[in-house]
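Q: Hi! Curious about what Glycine zipper domain-containing protein looks like structurally. Here's the sequence.
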Amino acid sequence: MRATRGLVRLALASALIIPLAACDGMSRREQRALSGGAIGAAGGAAVGALTGGSAVTGALIGGAGGAAVGALTGGGGRRR
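A: Let's find out. The predicted structure is below.
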């Protein structure tokens, strides 16, 4: 049981840390889309779980909405 719990923690930590390596050559718009998607997914999962709905469905909807808003508000890397 302990070995399984440790393996799950390792897999979760890897799933959270490894994707950060892909962020190196991203534009500002891509970074905002990614962070918006992550924030939206977390918020959607929380709302889905708290309201008695599906946390997975909430995460998918929140992630898609957050990524769209992040990409649309990215500004293309221009400063005003």
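A: A fun detail: The CA atoms of residues 46 and 67 lie 17 Å apart.
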